[in-house]
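Running this now, will post back.
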Amino acid sequence: MFAPKTTVYAHCDLPCGVYDPAQAKIEALSVKACMEKYAANTDPDFRSRSVAIKEERSHQVKEHLWVLWTDYFKAPHFEAYPQLHSLFNEATKLKACRCCRHKGNSGCCSCRFIDQEDR
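Update: finished.
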């Protein structure tokens, strides 16, 4: 009698329909800023906090991208933009700018991918 007739799945408890890459970009920019501050400061405690915050924000970038990739984009999107799968796969594997630490922070890799997705 009380069994659901239809099972639905969403990224939140209420299928809100709000999907915006801006959330991922804000977190990716935060990651980039953390690494810039890390590089500019020699205090070990500050550096430790910077890395911890960067890791937390990196995870948030991936979460936001995964929601877009798995919940928002549908077959018509992938047909119209065949690069979407590889774009999202590459962006999430970058782990939100971890590579910037090894490239002298010359550019924010995840931000670059998120900017492409906005197009």
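The CA atoms of residues 5 and 29 lie 43 Å apart. More later if anyone needs it.
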